[in-house]
Write a structure and sequence with these properties.
This protein is an alpha+beta fold. The protein is about 45% helix and about 10% strand.
Amino acid sequence: MVIKVFLASSSGSTAIKKKQQDVLGFLEALKVDYAPLDIACNEDNRMWMRENVPVEKKPTNGIPLPPQIFNEESYCGDYETFFDAKEDNAVFAFLGLPPPPGSKAPMKQEEAQEEVEDEEAKGEDDQPVSEGEEDLGSEEEEELRQLEEEEEAPEVTEQEEEDE
């Protein structure tokens, strides 16, 4: 299966260029095989893309903008749906590909809820969040504590170290 990414090589829009770079960079990072198909230089690519984006997914003006992503003939989505899948850690599902061996597949909503309940039962999330603080992951909390300790510790000059 080849992922087809429809792009515009000569787009004047920096927003479109950034979106295209984001999609391609992420696919390369995941080592996903894809074929970039230029709609600016190839009228057949442009017509195929426009004809195969589902009607309900087309913008109000009816002309879908790149990047548009397909798995062979199956429509996956545009940049916004790709971004949502990336945020949800579900890019392989979005692309219709099996996750690579050893990767953690995204959890179903019920499984995620059970995991949250398990953590709460262990008492890990029982600490209230102070006003102005975000609820951070355990690694981030540890880093924050270390930074706060460093700030609170009195500075020791080289002279003081020599005196000791």
